[in-house]
């Protein structure tokens, strides 16, 4: 029997493009895939990445401060907030347009600028590892490191990117407001880029120089909202072990025990597939009736129907 679900969907960077023009095109196909689920009656909550976008904003703000000495350097937390707003702007308009094409007269789509609290003592602050911004050549990366003091690392053979701290999310600050909107039947875009990272200083929420992994933030949000499913959309249709080798194997179904074994074997790349699998495991472990799935954006509808994707469950 078909059951409508409350689903938190984590969109990968491939769903948004790398530039403003690319993003405006990309969100149309993204909206089409999301609206397939909404049209089926599922309640959809959207979380998105912001790696290229927040890096672009950060570089633009750094250039402004160099050109105008009266302009202070913009904190990374503020850049995350900017990325949430402008990605949300494009995404909510694309969803609204697609829904209206399908005959939905009321299209209540809203973006919530969301703060996510992290622990100021999280060891991630001592080991920056989260890539942001565009891929650069070695020479470009060296120049950026020298000019801005950024930490640059090679990323999976695709070039060099800036890396920053990626602490684990502890609390979604605007959760009550998000819950109210979701309960009222609104389509909510939230925790963009993993959320604006903040630490609690007395009664003050202080922005942190970090980027929270959107998969971990999506997992926390899904648990707090009582979601039935967490769907992590990425650049592959299924999770694989022995990826890129002769004995490569694509996985349809994973128990928590099997997933943990593969993680311990080092089957999944840190900063790439590993956080996706770990977030999926965390969500599935929270309730025996909850399932996580990892698949392609354009395969989300088929994935929910059990036709593709990798499902992780107890």
UniProtKB/TrEMBL annotation:
Has keyword S-adenosyl-L-methionine?
Answer: no
InterPro entries per the UniProt record, alphabetical = AceGlu_kinase-like_sf, Asp/Glu/Uridylate_kinase, Carb_kinase
Q: Which GO terms describe its cellular component?
A: cytosol
Highest taxon above the source species = Bacteria
Q: Which residues does the UniProt record annotate as the domain Aspartate/glutamate/uridylate kinase?
A: 5-286
Biological or metabolic pathway of the protein:
Metabolic intermediate metabolism; carbamoyl phosphate degradation; CO(2) and NH(3) from carbamoyl phosphate: step 1/1
- Pfam families found in the cross-reference section: AA_kinase
Q: Which reaction does it catalyse?
A: hydrogencarbonate + NH4(+) + ATP = carbamoyl phosphate + ADP + H2O + H(+)
Gene3D superfamilies, sorted: Acetylglutamate kinase-like (3.40.1160.10)
| Key word Kinase present | yes
Q: Name one GO molecular function term.
A: carbamate kinase activity
Q: One biological-process term from Gene Ontology?
A: L-arginine deiminase pathway
Q: Which keywords appear in this protein's UniProt record, sorted alphabetically?
A: Arginine metabolism, Kinase, Transferase
What CDD domains does the database record attribute to this sequence?
AAK_CK
The record's family statement is:
Belongs to the carbamate kinase family.
Name of the protein described by the UniProt record: Carbamate kinase
Q: Which organism is it from?
A: Hespellia stercorisuis DSM 15480
Q: Lineage, please?
A: Bacteria, Bacillati, Bacillota, Clostridia, Lachnospirales
